[in-house]
Amino acid sequence: MSNLAGFNTFTSSLQDQGQLMPVLFMGHGSPMNGIEDNEFSAKWVEMGRNIPEPKAVVVVSAHWFTRGTQVTAMDFPKTIHDFGGFPQALFDVEYPAPGDPELAKETAGLIHSTAVGLDHDWGLDHGAWTVVRHMYPKANIPVLQLSIDYTKDATYHYNLAKELSALRKKGVLILGSGNMVHNLRMMSWEMINGGGYDWALEMNEKFKSLIMNGEHQPLLNYQRLGSAAMMAIPTPEHYLPLLYTLGLQNKNEEVSLFNDKAVGGSLTMTSVRVG
């Protein structure tokens, strides 16, 4: 057991909670959302209040892209400021949530499709802490990160997520953090406060329709959805966290959307709640 006085801790045998914890996909957008009180962060705060308080949070962030799969396993993960060109106030933020090495071991043990390494070097990148600090500002809930293996395809990640389903029964919030549409090279500062290119809006609507109808296979084969999809997903790291969330959806389980807005022309904040 982790010896973290004052924090929620785990034993190596997590107890079923009698209900399934919801699963989230958060469009995290700009790192500045981590310190701003805006329409997006307000929804994160609201979500933290509306779902059951988790025993821990496991984040699949677009910003931890590795060869192989790893899970953070330190007692106190550092706050990583993995960005540049932002105000000093953003770099000054520390989110001192504990980790949980025992939960890390248990999470790794649930995954049989690949060996999972226990990482002691990473921490919490901005895909994790900018969102979670709004949800749980007291930093009293353990937070872990699960990395995304960049050598594997979308179907692999979707299926790997299913292996984590037991955590939902044990009060663990699994949170994918990325953006459905994410093409920074085409970002427009004229539309930074709202608005999207036609192709971005087209694909966001397509993604939403498929998600709400439970049609996951086309989302796994997104390369076949046409040229607009390739513009929306020029590289997969911000899209794949969505597939972890969808992979954990049970048959007929309720799905809802929030923060459904395009910003900067080529990025959408559209987020998903399962359960």
TrEMBL record:
InterPro entries to which the protein is assigned, alphabetical: Extradiol_dOase_DODA (IPR014436), Xdiol_dOase_suB (IPR004183)
Superkingdom in the source lineage: Bacteria
Extradiol ring-cleavage dioxygenase class III enzyme subunit B domain sequence ranges: 46-251
Record keyword Glycosyltransferase present: no
One annotated GO molecular function: oxidoreductase activity, acting on single donors with incorporation of molecular oxygen, incorporation of two atoms of oxygen
Keywords: Dioxygenase, Metal-binding, Oxidoreductase, Zinc
Cofactor(s) the record lists: Zn(2+)
Family the entry assigns: Belongs to the DODA-type extradiol aromatic ring-opening dioxygenase family.
PANTHER family associated with the record: 4,5-DOPA DIOXYGENASE EXTRADIOL-LIKE PROTEIN
Protein name: Extradiol ring-cleavage dioxygenase class III protein subunit B
Organism: Pedobacter heparinus (strain ATCC 13125 / DSM 2366 / CIP 104194 / JCM 7457 / NBRC 12017 / NCIMB 9290 / NRRL B-14731 / HIM 762-3)
